[in-house]
Amino acid sequence: MTQPRKFFALLFTLAASAVFAAGCGKKEAACPFTTITWDHTLEDIQELEGGEGESYDSTVYGGPVYSYPKEYEGLEGTVKYSFDEKNRLVSMAWMYEAKDSEDLAGVYDKLHGQAEDMLGKSGFKYNSDRFADLTSPGDVWYLDTGNVILNTVDAEDVKILQYNFLHPDVSESNPQDGK
Q1: d(Cα 179, Cα 156) in Å, to the nearest integer?
Q2: pTM, entire model
Q3: What is the annotated signal peptide range for this record (predicted)?
Q4: Across residues 23-35, what is the average pLDDT?
Q5: How many angstroms separate the CA atoms of 88 and 81, rounded?
């Protein structure tokens, strides 16, 4: 191969690699509050979290849910691992019960900022102007690798934040895409 042909072949290969890499640059959610992934088993979770934890049957996914105390970002909360009827891990959620509305808003703002740094803006409008005064903050990232949901409940008797990572098989598409 002559020198100009080698140069153009190399240039074409580099350009094709750059285009391919850009196409593969989709956002992927790396769950920040656990090292568990969708490929792990209950035994892996029990080894990581230290024991059997509390368990109950999921009314959503058809299998058991295992919960453990879990510190994340210096806050004491609970991590919940949900399985489907085939014993596949389909949901990982961290829940935090806030002291008051100000604490809840501060934790939400911090975690939401971190999620946006990792995943970009969600593009989902959970809070519309019409319901701004009635709804607690929340956001959803609809990803091919599984949805990520960050939401709060700020009621008189309970103030809870939940940070949830869903398996792609139980994730839904963005309902606002069709509008």
Answers
A1: 34
A2: 0.79
A3: 1-21
A4: 70
A5: 10
